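User: Could you check the structure of this?
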Amino acid sequence: MPEMTASIKSALLVLGCPEVPAGTATVLHLSRVQGGSLPPTGTPQCSGIIETRDRRHSMPCDADHLLEYIMDGTICAEIFGRVRSERPLVHHITNAVTINDCANITLCAGAAPVMAGAPEESAEMAAAAAALVLNIGTLSTVQVDSMLLAGRRANELGIPVVLDPVGAGATAMRTGAVLRILDEVAVSVLKGNAGEIGVLAGAGGTVRGVDSCGIAGDAVETAAACARIFGTVVAMTGGTDVVTDGERVLLVENGDPMMERLSGTGCMASSVVGAFAAVEGDRILSSAAALAAFGLAGERAARAARGPYSFRTDLFDELFALTPEDLAAHARVREPHGI
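Assistant: Sure, the predicted structure tokens are below.
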């Protein structure tokens, strides 16, 4: 049986579901998962057993299949809990417009930010961090050089790198800078909007300034194609966020339209993705959990907001107040049918 990820095992333990060896199969006590609901029985080629309080069901127990049934927030909550308990240092080389927002949203998520963009120190600072976030929003050649120095050092040390290709496709300089970083640095997560990801995937995405004007094709197919081209996890934000490595796909449905009415929410989302990547090696799970947490905070902030700026203040407060239990109950993360 394939190994389950640490997050799946931890989530089962959080639920009080210890893993029990039973020959070559695995017995998982999942009576509390989704209120005890189970997938259909009689699935062929069973590799494990699911046991509830009152009966046993045969089903495949590989990690991907199990994920389909417990990605209701439990795994998201477990990763979020580790961000809060470990408080990882997240090194940012980011844009001047949103640098303060990115620092504060990182703090509200439970991590610790450092904003160090000078090439003279970027590699050294990256070595001290648990994750590196690169954001080209206010691009310069000096900044790109600094990103490359930090990115290479992060790669040497196995530190995850998140790249936000802000405005890719708007100018040749921006697109070229993103392609250069992707060529010279092993990027763990490429987090962008639909227009940026569409441009990089060659799928007809359009960008005006740094804002997405959408894509011509299917969102999941576009994100998956981009992931395959660059050999990374793509987190494409939109009405429904798409997280994929080109094969596995998770859709995140948390969020609110008000998040599109405020400058910097995409940059802040990248910071939260970096914080979650710092504590979880499965970048699909960490990215989906990060976007679910950020989106849920956005939903709650929108309830009382009178406009974009009161929403901005509430967004920070709601993420700060969010608990792993809240995320377990209200994260909306699923696999698309047919994938």
